[in-house]
Amino acid sequence: MHLHVDEEITFRRLEILLVFMETGNLARAAEILEISPVSVHRALHALETGLRCALFRHEGRNLHPTEAAQALAEVARDVLRSMAAGVRSTREVAGYSADRIRIGSLYSLTNRTVPTLVMGMKLRKPDIQTELILGSNADLLQKLRDGAVDAALMGTPEGASDLESEPLFEDDIYFAAPVGSRYAAMEQIDLAACAHERFVTLSEGFVTYSGFVDSFRVAGFTPHVVMKTGDIFSLMNLVSGGVGCTLLPGRVRTVMPQKVQLIPLQSRYLMRQTISLNFLRTRERDPNLLALLSVCRMSKAELG
Asked: What is the mean pLDDT of the segment spanning 63-73?
């Protein structure tokens, strides 16, 4: 069934009607609405035009509501109340200014970066609940676009014109080997000399995996990968257990198993990750995201 309401009848004009009905005075209604008395009068007249009936009796310069105006005002209260609730619930479904914020993050950021930002949000907006969702760069990018997370802490995605990205820190990639390996005494690693080494790595889609591939492309060979895993802590344990070597970002240094050693790469192999806060440009005015963005900017010195 097609429902039609005359275009002269708008939410704003219904709001003006209600304020006028409550005050009974054009000047007072205009003051409350921060518009001119003439604008109030025009809005009321437009409602009469749209309804095709009189809403007020003119007595001199005064307007007196008719029973029709009383009936419209009663409906208008319900309509505006319902629409306000609808706007609020729609925003909550979309995550806009809800009572929670869903933050996506790489596993490697849960030791320092995530706790710092969560505590900052608690101080800034104590009523907001924070939900943490972990994944790879590719997972988090898709979740952002699907609306499954509100913001993502990850490697800055390339060519993502639909995102706002706030750089947090840069991180170098290191060669990771078991303590006591033949690489232990080396000051720098020449990847070209590691062609016969066994390697373990993260699955495709992680920003560290991208750095892994790029470094070996420079080295000129395809590494012998004996195992892939879906999180960086499992990857470090594989190195600790002697399954293979890998490349790791420096930020994991404080949470590495004791049997893993990080060794700098020669400069020609060096890959640097930029970690950033990312969210959709269409959400750039969301109060919760603006608060998180402010926390990130104030906490940059503590995040790397």
From this structure: 91
